[in-house]
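Entry 14. Ran structure prediction on the chain below.
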Amino acid sequence: MKFINRAVLQHVQNRLECGQVVLLLGARRVGKTELLRRVEQEFEGKTLFINSETVNAQLLFEPRTAEHYRKTFSSFDLVLIDEVQELPNAAKNLKLLVDEVPSVRVLASGSAPIGVREIGEPLVGRSKVLYMYPLAYGEIAAHENPLQIQANLEERLIYGSYPRVWQLSHYTDKAEYLDNLVSSLLLKDVLSIGGVRHSSKLIDLLRLIAFQVGQEVSLPELSRQIGIDKNTTERYLDLLQKVFVIIKRQGFSRNLRKEIAKSSRWYFLDNGIMNTIVQNFRPLSVREDVGRLWENYCVAERLKFHAYSRRMFVNSYFWRTYDQQEIDIVEEEGIATGGLAAFECKWSPTAKHSTPKAWKEAYPNVPLQVIHRENYSEFFSLPDT
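Output, structure tokens:
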């Protein structure tokens, strides 16, 4: 299988320090295991790779005594732990490891922050968290020439950007892979970690969200349609965020009277997952939801762009007023000047657009930029790509 240069690799390597845990979080099959193997291969020192889903891995962390940990791990310079959420008491084990063997570096991957939710307390000051996503535009651009990139754009809107999907040649193989990914892997985390008993309700919820991408979503309405109470619906949405299936966006407001701030919109982290949920892999030429596909793609790619560019203090929103003026993406810099940026997602470069009057009046120094299929590279390209 062809190795893909991942943008997060150097960030991970730069943060490996003695007595520290680097947590690499992301959905299953985005390439975390391969990246850990790459770090291991390039690391100058003695390493130990642990697959947390094996019985032997469980035994390595028992008994939980300082003496046992020193005897087990002190001869290694780097310990790599794959799918760390599968370990019982994962956070406490990691804390004991770095406390008792301060000379070791630890890199741990996880497919759900839920499984390591207690890490925030035991590992305060001892951990650094990085995120890994399906292939970003900038990562793909490093392996395709400009003509291929443009020619394959429609394919990414339909089948998404998971590494294995990108490498498969035939559309039927891509669709089958995605179907297996959704049914046997992504939902597995929600069902096992979140205590969800009926996967059908999750699929129903995701299907409703898929048909409402780019629109405000009503929790009571979602609850009514899938037949569960509002609190359970809210919990399911939270779980689906935490296992990197969907993205939540709040309305942007600086307390102006006409701005809507309390509603939410939901997007998928990958277009292929969204199309799998609705079982629609038809080409764009016969689809009526091209605008929705493009907006979802733009939101997800901007998230990857900020994460891999290390722009950690950018908050993303949508913007709408009560009289239906709206903007797809508003970004607010969380440090320094607190600057704003506004983007409208239009598939066609010739589509009509204009800056909403209320936006121009409230934020006259923030122009509206349009992301379309002929200029999108300037908004998604990563540094040095």
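The chain has two domains: 8-131, 137-380. Will compare against last week's run tomorrow.
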